[in-house]
Specification:
Blueprint (H helix, E strand, L loop, with lengths): L1 E3 L5 H13 L3 E3 L1 H5 L6 E3 L3 E6 L7 H9 L2 E3 L2 E8 L6 H11 L3 E9 L15 H23 L11 H17 L6 E3 L8 H5 L5 E4 L2 E4 L8 H5 L5 E3 L17
Parallel strand pairs: 1-2, 1-4, 3-5, 4-6, 6-7
Antiparallel strand pairs: 8-11, 9-10
The structure holds flavin mononucleotide (FMN).
The site of flavin mononucleotide has 26 residues, from helix 1 and strand 6.
Length: about 250
């Protein structure tokens, strides 16, 4: 079973390609996370958890969800991380969590995709040509990854140095706490009050008031709201007005 969370479609796309290659089912975790649905997931085939990387780790809300989620059937777990190019210590933390759940960590793959963190100037947006290139290269990796999983082998990714762990472990919570305010999100007059942003928010952070979204805290900065708005009516401070609202739907069917 392939489980995934995706805000702007990169991870959803990779999960769907893997599901096809493995002839396995795909489960979108967004609704389950939103509704605190902890009903067990059951599979005879290995579990493959596909997730974006946020600040060098798996998103915290997803980590907390997987930690509590009961897994039945197969005991093997693979992770697939999509990122803008640096997955940090995501694999290290996933391995530790998997072992604590008494399951077998079968390794992970890191897949470079277009960057979706458009509200931060720390990550420059990926240019359209580069988006196409990264997506095409990611597609080419799927058969090998699928074959390793099907044969019960171990996925191997790059070595994580001790200094990375020492820097990222304290850095992530500080960044999440101080660099992810939601107060800068707002809608322009293109907003029709459809509420899609509110329905997509994995941490239930957006409430509709007078047919307009209002962002509360704490925000995961996942970008699901701003990058899925059908009218591109959401902006963030003065950072996003001139930036493309990336969504993989602009590149693949
Ligand atoms: C809050 C946030 C933090 C991110 N941090 C990183 C990071 O540390 N390293 C990196 O390479 N990409 C980072 N990214 C980029 C995403 O991991 C990448 O674009 C991912 O493929 C998005 O997946 P999705 O389209 O399935 O949501 C970050 C994105 C967000 C929204």
């Amino acid at each position: 079973m392939i489980l995934f969370f995706s805000a702007s479609g990169n991870t959803r796309y990779i999960a769907s390609l893997l599901a096809e290659a493995l002839d396995d089912e795909c489960l979108d975790l967004n609704e389950r996370i939103r509704t605190h649905d902890y009903s067990p997931v059951c599979s005879e085939k290995p579990f493959v958890i596909c997730t974006p990387v946020y600040v060098c780790e798996m998103p915290r809300f997803l980590h907390e969800y997987i930690k509590r989620l009961p897994f039945r059937g197969n005991r093997n777990v693979y992770y697939i991380f999509t990122s803008g190019g640096y997955a940090g210590i995501a694999g290290t933390l996933a391995r530790s969590m998997t072992r604590k759940k008494d399951m077998i960590y079968k390794g992970h793959a890191e897949i470079k995709m277009p960057t979706n963190h458009i509200v931060s100037d720390a990550y420059p947006p990926t240019e359209p040509d580069e988006c196409r290139k990264r997506i095409a290269e990611a597609e080419k990796r799927i058969p090998d990854i699928a074959e390793t999983i099907m044969s019960g082998g171990k996925l191997r990714a790059r070595y994580v140095f001790l200094f990375e762990k020492l820097i990222i472990l304290p850095f992530n919570p500080i960044w999440v706490r101080y660099k992810q305010p939601s107060k800068d999100f707002y809608t322009t007059d293109k907003c029709v009050g459809c509420g899609k942003c509110s329905r997509l928010c994995p941490v239930n952070n957006i409430v509709m008031e007078n047919k307009r979204p209002v962002w509360q805290a704490p925000c995961a900065h996942c970008m699901a709201c701003i990058l899925n708005c059908p009218f591109e009516a959401i902006e963030y401070g003065n950072i996003t007005q001139k930036k493309d609202k990336y969504n993989i739907k602009k590149y693949v069917k």
